[in-house]
Amino acid sequence: MKYDHYTVEDLAADPHFRQWVVSPTPELTEFWDEWICGHPDRHERADEARELVLVLQSDAVEVPPVQVQRAWERLDRQLTQQEGAARQRRLHWYRWAAAACLVLGVVGGGWIWWQNTPLSYTTAYGETREVVLPDGSRVVLNANSTLRLQGSWATSAWTRGTDTDREVWLEGEAFFNVCRQHVDHQPVKFRVYTPDLTIEVLGTQFNVTNRDEATQVVLKSGKVRLALRNEQDEEIMMQPGDLVAYSRAEHHLKQRVVVPERYEAWTEGKLVLDDVTLQTVADEIEAIYGIEVVIKDDSLKAMKLGGTLYTENLNQLLDALVFTTGVQVQHHDHQILIRK
């Protein structure tokens, strides 16, 4: 494969790689995931190239010029520690990228400094977003969700083989596809934190929902250790197909077996209804679109539904709901009313 011998600079300049970083498609994601996962040397190259591509996409913050100068000096000192021709090529590339960012900052009315900005990704109501983490793991964020990364993940030190655990914080819902990582033949852990739970994995696929003071984890593949953050004595080892739920009201973990594909269908814009209530559908609509849904009749709330609804367009979703259930739906600006 031609990419096996690409340098960091080659990857960052490759149009297919750049498109995957900035605007991924399923085909590109499948290709680069297969190329990166399981190869530590490729991980390092891809991580550095990805940082270079994203450097011009980063959000800017204004800082005093003296801070920019200090940052430049730090970057220059780090680069001068590298030796040989590879160092010269990389220095040239980093200087170009840094200079380009500084020029953009001047044009925008301020100086840019990106290295110490905490990494966070947020989706609006009605929006989903795919995020590629520094280790090559991929996360799909559902609507109205936020993912924060540990600050050291933004530095090159982690990607060069330290044993720092990989840690993220989630508010909302996300589907994780975690790449396995090893340092000195030891696995590097990956942790997801919600306000109440710690989810610890090595390499696996799972879905996490954290809304309304409740957290739910569904494991598709691999193994997960789940623990209450404030009570380490209570923990569960999950197997594929397990669902574990926690609510602050009940204050303990509940475990059952489910079909995982139903809980990740939202990543494809689908809401799979497997004998769920109309109230559950209403709750999903509120979470995705941020619109209050009111069901006037209590008997309607308990109505059981099956099939699949598509969530990409709210009006089409409501039309399908009317067609399949026979209910009446009134959609105002900030409220949806469902009645017989």
From TrEMBL:
User: Where does the record place the FecR protein domain?
Assistant: 121-225
UniProt keywords (A-Z) are:
Membrane, Transmembrane, Transmembrane helix
Segments spanning the bilayer are 93-114
| Domain Protein FecR C-terminal intervals | 270-338
Molecular functions per Gene Ontology: sigma factor antagonist activity
What domain of life is recorded for the organism? Bacteria
InterPro entries, sorted: FecR, FecR_C, Ferrdict_sens_TM
Under the heading PANTHER family, the entry gives:
PERIPLASMIC SIGNAL SENSOR AND SIGMA FACTOR ACTIVATOR FECR-RELATED (PTHR30273), PROTEIN FECR (PTHR30273:SF2)
Name used for this protein in its record? Ferric-dicitrate binding protein FerR, regulates iron transport through sigma-19
Species whose genome carries this gene: Catalinimonas alkaloidigena
The root-end lineage is: Bacteria, Pseudomonadati, Bacteroidota, Cytophagia, Cytophagales
